Amino acid sequence: MNTLFYTTKSCNKENANKEWFIVDADGENLGRLASRLAKILRGKHKTNFTPHADCGDYVVVINSTKIVLTGNKDNDKEYIRYTGYPGGQRTASLREVREKHPNRVIEKAVKGMLPKTKLGRAVFKNMFVYESTEHRQEAQKPKTINLIGI
Questions:
Q1: Would you state the pLDDT for residue 64?
Q2: For tag attachment on the chain, is the N or C end more exposed, with fewer CB atoms within 10 Å?
């Protein structure tokens, strides 16, 4: 009896083939940019995607200060954190966060779209966000990627 056998190839650290990409956030919408970055970091754009393994790529985001937000989100959107003490709930508007730490807006948006597990925390470390066009990953020779098709 001649039958076809199909084997499922599972991705792991040895055969993940991780690449370095650079993304320009100039003029990009925050939510759309974050969802596409999360997809690349997780590895869902690859044919050998494995849900339980870190098979995603490394991403360098430049020009994080030039993202676009629609509506009145600068004043209306609030980030809430808790200090751990009674009465320690603190809020900050998106405008305040952008002034103090412009990279955190993109980081928090992408982190919210990743799994809340050990794997999600490990995948998040593969993203590097910079305010301007200068970055420290020149030695890795990152390729410029257009996020429209992803």
A1: 94
A2: N
Model pLDDT, residue 149:
76
Give the pLDDT score at 107. 97
Whether the CB-CB separation of 70 and 143 falls below 8 Å is answered with no
DSSP label of 48: T
Query: How far, CA to CA in Å, does 20 sit from each of 63, 87, 150?
Result: 17, 43, 16
52, 35 Cβ separation under 8 angstroms = no
Q: Which of 41, 51, 55 lies closest to 109 in space, CA to CA?
A: 41
**Chain segment 3-20, per-residue pLDDT in tens:** 677 777 788 888 889 999
